[in-house]
Amino acid sequence: MKNKVALFIGLIAVVLLLMAGCSSGDDENTIKVWTMNNSMEDFVTKYEEENDVSVEVQVIPWGEVKDKFLTAIASGEGPDVVQVGTTGVPEYADAGMFMDLSDYISEYENFNPDNFYEGAIGTTEYEGETIGVPFHVDTRVLFYRTDILADVGYPEGPKNWDEMVDASRQLAERGDDQYAIDLPRDDPQYPFMLAWQHGWNYNEDEGASNFEDPKFLEAMSKYETFYQEGLSQLEEGKELVQAFSDGSKPMFFSGPWDIKTIIDGAPEIEDQWDVRVMPEQDTNRSMIGGSHFGVFHNSEKVEQSLDFINWLADADTQLEWYKDVNELPANLEAWEDPILADDPKFSVFGEQLESTEVLPMITEYTEMSEELLNYMEEVYRGGADLESTLEDYRTKVTDILSE
Amino acid sequence: MEAKSKLEKFIVTLLLVLGGISVSLPFIWMILSSFKTEREVLQIPPTLFPQNPTFQNYLELFQSLNFDVYLRNTLIIVFFSMIGLLLNTMAGYGFGKFEFRGKEIWFMVVLVTMMLPGQITMIPTYLILNEMGLTNTMTGIVLPGLIVAFNIFLIRQFMVTVPDDLIEAARLDGAGEIYIFFKLIIPLAKPILSVQVILTFIASWNSFLWPLIIANDQRLYTLSVGLSLLQDQYATNYGLQMAGSAIMVIPILIIFMIFQKYLVEGFNVSGIK
Amino acid sequence: MTRWKYKLMPLFFIGPAVLLLMVFSFAPIFLSLGISFTDLTLIGLADWSKINFIGIENFVKLFKDKVFLESIFNTFFYVLIGVPLAVSSSLVIALLLSMVGKWLSSTFRLIFYMPSVTNIVAIAVVWGFLYNQQYGLFNYLLSLINIQSIPWLEDPLVAKFSLIILAIWKSNGVSMLIFLAALQSIPKVYYEAADIDGANRWQKFFKITLPSMSFATFFVTVTTVIGWLQFFEEPFVMTDGGPLNGTNSMALYIYQRGFEYNDFGYAAAASFVLFIIVIVATIVQFRFRKKDQTL
């Protein structure tokens, strides 16, 4: 018995020693950075060597960013520099998570808003403050099978929504289990993109009455059409790459990451697919996504942090990052490099990025867009009437905005 | 209750085999998928055996993970959870075999902590830890999970079935309370404790949320957190995930096999009554 | 032993556990209760002076919230169908395991426990395939016997049953282990005595096995009810509450409100409604047991 107690105490002592060994350095030359990308740790070594600064990177898994940010906001215990996805900006900025960088923009050469895509800059601004500097961007384009679309008369893909509907009807008629497109049913951004392309726009001052616009109704009725006529599959069918490869779903909207997915996943259709900018009706606007780097509101190392962000914002840095992990640079100059400019597929993203719209920069956007998906599901799956459902949706939006 | 006739044995075995196959398929699929290419993992209908077996997923796993650091942290948490298990066992025994004032109320307090979904208490718990200055420490990661109401409840349920005479007899023989607990109760409780060890090990081995929330330093991350770092925002790398889970599951299976033999060690009180 | 020492003993045994629970589990519950009477959102989290006390407004709103009411209905549906199936099937597995030889028993124990340690993503992928309406294995098997394809996850009602099957499959392992441990704890002498009295197997089962396992059964039932009232993971990974909100559970709804929309006050209020339901369900079960069990 005695021996066991001694052993037990010994073990605890060992563990406590191990734990004590974990305390981290916290000197003048260390900045803490929160990021979502596992490659960042190795990527910053170049900066560390050049500037004699130690950058302590903490990678946070994408799915848990919210939990981590919430607790940081609640306790005021955060890093110095933080990466934030564009869709999270309004919520976190509203809670005062970021330091306002407006006064520093002129001080650092790489902070100049003209260096970046307009849409990317749009998502760094919240209520007159600048919360960060754009790092990477992404947007959605149309992926399509050139051979199959050629069969129905659109070898370059449908240019506008009329062509899209026409092509889709022909494609769906190819037989059972043949569809035209795989619409992103769970993507809350998609209905908004569709509405922008039909000339609709969200005006922050108008609130729920934005959705009274006949252009919005037109866009949503097109949304409904794709399910009603079986142009897009209602059920969970085949996996995306498989359906694209066997031609049963020869089109889909997606972002830059799916280029690699298709190249790796479907080598047998190597020369039979392409990407093109969004179909146009009134506009061909797509969304702008990506991420920024900002300074946590109570960081004591503002200067070092800004210097690091200045490095991240540089065209060369962002180009290197693209080569490493395939995330698209927000810096316009980086796009002049042949590696992007001459890439037949990625250059399409560059083109699309010129025509993007900023999602409503309001904290209620998440709920508003998720609810729109739910209400639209009532229509295409539950068989509810479109117009009266949109009326209900407006009531819901009024409710959400008044909270 | 052994089966009697041959026919009975056959039917029982058949039922178990059929059930066993259907129950273990996803697990087998998970293991086999870790040797598949990314594309094959998601193919419909899925393949059971990899067409072009590859070790790529495992290679990538070992190259991009700080295994030593994550493993050490995970083991520390496992170690403390076992101390927690001891405390849980003591509490279960206390509730099962002692009479004292307010017992019902205290037991309700224990049960109540099982009843609110974890997400909703996450922020308050974090704030309490923060007030105590325990963020970014191993202590802060370990403490909130040390006591598990479910375990106390289970042990108490078992303790109630231990005959009072047994304990009284030991007391009459002059044994101290602590001696009784360690030398009489714990050996008696082997079947239920082996279940507990398995459950506690799994929970702490997989611990994810607190190490992530409390740590402001990657050096405190655990294996599960490390694995989830390999996940992209959009492109789910299924093959890699399956390889990660396959690796994580091995120690669990070992612990299971070691402790399950105690499961069948009967409750030997026949000599007493 | 002296009297005071005997009085202190329970404190020694339960003290450490109860103290830790009070600080890290019980106190947060009270904090959450407080939050449920406020309009706490992200901004209030950052700056506590911006939190407003709004009384029972959250609760009033909840009971007018169609989605919340649907999620209560779904949750009751899960519990009423799922709990009896889950408890009885794990009991049957444990009994079957106790009827075969040592080697078979220990092998199958491991096999039946496997779903509990299978990665949730793997589960979602495999079951997603099994339930795929067009290409899934289930519908393929049904087509062999000329049964029309079933919309496993595409119909609000059917999807509820599909998730129940999945959840039982996944959670049976733990209950099975507890039943097994309880079965092993039944003194052999009871059966020997019954044999002498010439009891048949069913008599032994109903007069010895079942009553001796009532403690374990009670435990498994109480915890299973609590678990199913907090049904979360299955709809979260398989359907995200859809189609048409048909599989949304209270716990998932709370998660959506709190962690997707940052509406912490409202989510806390919803979780208290769930909390009350769980407490009532548990107390009712304890009352029913009261006759042959002291606390």
Automatic annotation (TrEMBL), chain A:
State the Gene Ontology terms under molecular function: maltose binding
| Top-level taxon of the source organism | Bacteria
Against InterPro entries, the record matches this protein to: SBP
Question: Signal sequence span per UniProt?
Answer: 1-25
What Gene Ontology terms for biological process does this UniProt record contain?
A: maltodextrin transmembrane transport; maltose transport
| Cellular component GO terms held in the UniProt record | ATP-binding cassette (ABC) transporter complex, substrate-binding subunit-containing
User: Which of UniProt's keywords are assigned here?
Assistant: Signal, Transport
| PROSITE patterns the record matches | PROKAR_LIPOPROTEIN
Q: Which family does it belong to?
A: Belongs to the bacterial solute-binding protein 1 family.
Which PANTHER family is this protein grouped with? MALTOSE-BINDING PERIPLASMIC PROTEIN, MALTOSE_MALTODEXTRIN-BINDING PERIPLASMIC PROTEIN
What name has this protein been given in UniProt? Extracellular solute-binding protein
Q: Which organism is it from?
A: Gracilibacillus salitolerans
From TrEMBL, chain B:
Transmembrane portions of the chain: 12-32, 70-93, 105-129, 141-159, 180-203, 238-259
The protein's location, in the record's own words, is: Cell membrane
Record's GO cellular component terms: plasma membrane
Which biological process terms from the Gene Ontology are attached to this UniProt entry? transmembrane transport
Family designation: Belongs to the binding-protein-dependent transport system permease family.
Annotated PANTHER family: ABC TRANSPORTER PERMEASE PROTEIN MG189-RELATED (PTHR43744:SF12), ABC TRANSPORTER PERMEASE PROTEIN MG189-RELATED-RELATED (PTHR43744)
Name of the featured protein: ABC transporter permease subunit
UniProtKB/TrEMBL annotation, chain C:
Q: Which InterPro entries match?
A: ABC_transporter_permease, MetI-like, MetI-like_sf
Q: Which SUPFAM superfamilies match?
A: MetI-like (SSF161098)
Task: List, alphabetically, the Pfam families matched.
Answer: BPD_transp_1
Where primarily located?
A: membrane
Please indicate if the UniProt record lists Repressor as a keyword: no
Keyword annotations for this protein?
Cell membrane, Membrane, Transmembrane, Transmembrane helix, Transport
Where would you find this protein in the cell?
A: Cell membrane
The cross-references to Gene3D superfamilies, in alphabetical order and at most eight, read: MetI-like
Q: Which PANTHER family does UniProt cross-reference here? A: ABC TRANSPORTER PERMEASE PROTEIN, INNER MEMBRANE ABC TRANSPORTER PERMEASE PROTEIN YCJO
Membrane spanning residue stretches: 12-35, 76-98, 110-130, 161-183, 210-231, 264-286
Name the record gives this protein: ABC transporter permease subunit
Q: Which GO terms describe its cellular component?
A: plasma membrane
Q: What GO biological process terms are annotated to this protein in UniProt?
A: transmembrane transport
